[in-house]
Design brief:
Distance between the termini: 28 Å
Structural class: mainly beta
Helix content: under 10%
CATH class: Mainly Beta
Number of helices: 1
CATH topology: Porin
Largest sheet: 12 strands, antiparallel
Amino acid sequence: MEVNAAMVKLSWDRFIEGAYTKFVYGRAHTGDHTGVYSIDGGDATTPWGPYTDSTVVDDDSVDFFVIPGDAYNNSQYQIMYQWAHIFNTKGKRLSDNKPKAASGTADLFSLGLKVDGIGDEISDFLDDTTFFISGAYTKYTPDTGYSLLGSTSSENGSSVWTGVIFPDMITDAGKFGLEYNHGSKYWTPMTWAEDTAIGSKIAVRGDAYEAYWNFNLFGVKYLPSQVRYTYAQHNYTPNIKCAGWVTPNKVDITAQDVRLAVTYRY
């Protein structure tokens, strides 16, 4: 997403191995968006329209403060955390039902564990296996006269993301991966970094399953390749780019994505 920001990083490695914290303050949606992100004659009432539209009132800048970091990292065990506070996140103004107005605050928090190598030299297979799990939480609090996620009260969301990556036992460097995601009704993270045609599985309000095979085509290290399948079951209106003006209504939507990729690296 287009932002202007300043960052300071502090290392705590002298106290806790691999620990650090970043402090980031920034602003998004600055300047004139007319003719850049807007569409002339666009319908400002639809949540699927452009994020900034010349017909939308109160399209103010969005200020945010983010604290990401590692609580511990010894190359095998890594504990990661992140907290973000959005001071004026986008929602809906009740007086005229206009979406994309500065409507309140949002808080996003996550805590994750990654293990690179299971145990201590139990076997080559476990040494080359990676496991990770992450829990996350969001809270959207609307101002008086506005709604966020279809509600005039604070709403909490949560998610779980876990997976394992292990040697394929077929090629020299290939690995299989299995991942699972679950998101609650009001789970609403920021998800611009989508890498499938069906959107971000991390943002699913429901369940998502993914399996992939990463390998070097013909054993050539300059040809990293991937075969991947992703399945998502949306139990509530899909979460699109932390869109606070979209009400998460009950739905039954499934989406599937198949990816076959070959990259030439030089």
